[in-house]
Amino acid sequence: MDTFLPQLHRLRDEMEAATSVCTYLDHAAISPLPRRVRDAMAGYLDNRLVTFGFIDRDEEGIPDRLRKTVARLINAAPEEIAIVQNTSHGLNLVAQSLPFRPGDNIIFCDMEFPSNVYPWMLLERQKGVEARCIPHDGGGLTVEALEAHADRRTRAVAVSSVEFLTGFRTDLAAIGEWCRAHGAYFIVDGIQSLGAIPMDVRAYGIDFLAAGGPKWLMGPVGVGFLYCRRELLEEMAPPMAGCVSVVNWQEWRQYDLTFLPDAHRFDLGGPNLVGMTGLMAAIELLLETGVENIHRHTLHLTDVLITDLQRRGYRVVSNLAPLHRSAIVSFAVPGDVRAAHARLREAKVAVSLRESYIRVSPHGYNTEEEVLRVGEVLG
């Protein structure tokens, strides 16, 4: 706690409900809701007006306010932000909207979470686009791996900003530069970094970025966003259309299927205003705290964790190169990993069991004492 900045103290105060119940080190899975987020969603429901059969129809402009908040988080423009249900929803919109042709290929590595694999496999089945899964390089995707497997028909590269199992932090700037040089779309699954690592879609040359809210963003389940670079929006033919997707949408019986020129073209109908309210409150809390502050602190915590695990003889499988470090650390446990995970749960230490590894993922409100609990319990 001595290393905490004042902003991190305030973030910890928001997590009082979680910290009083257990040692929570599992943000790569799902986050407990900060008090501010719970209060914002409850307040929306409490204040929603229903009088004489008329329902308050979002007079505060919640979707547009959320778009502006997301844009601040990732250095984008609000009109480039679509509100989606989750990461998979956003990536599927990208896959189904872009003008891929038979014989094109999309490259991703074999460390990706299924959300960033199945949309491309589905394209292979539907349109004859090759979903080219290549071997990872040190836990994730690198330019060197791309060079070894790409060809003139590579139309897109899909990658996670941080890989869910290894915690490998992708060099987004380098891959973005490669994609620009080779005329390939650059598509990023950002759910394992947003909220814990700063993001700048313009600096990294990202064309599309999708993320759900319930991990490092500390928002509710069932709401997220999709960033689409404005210059590419006209290339995208949405696979679905709804009552608010089109120009002049309030002229209900004109039936003019001309999509809106910005990311609103992906809107379909009634939005999840409760979820949007919660996600907006969560992102605002993180922006006040400072994502850079969170990033520095979580790297410090994982340094402490890694040193302790290695001292105790555990094998850390996450890439330890500074360029590829994140707030996720996975390590191997001799013997029965399920029993080790059960011991941690019994001691009220929340971490994940992923494949044959224990995965630890602290956030900015966690302390040195909390990450050291992992080694203390396992011995």
Structure description:
This protein is α/β, with parallel strands linked by helices. The chain has 2 domains: 114 residues, Alpha-Beta Complex (Aspartate Aminotransferase, domain 1), CATH 3.90.1150.10; 235 residues, 3-Layer(aba) Sandwich (Aspartate Aminotransferase, domain 2). The strands form 4 sheets. Strands 4-10-9-8-7-5-6 form a 7-stranded mixed β-sheet, with helices on both faces. A 4-stranded antiparallel β-sheet has the order 11-12-15-14, with helices on one face. Helix 6 links the parallel strand 5 and strand 6. Helix 1 runs antiparallel to helix 9. It is globular, with a radius of gyration of 21 Å. The mean pLDDT is 94.
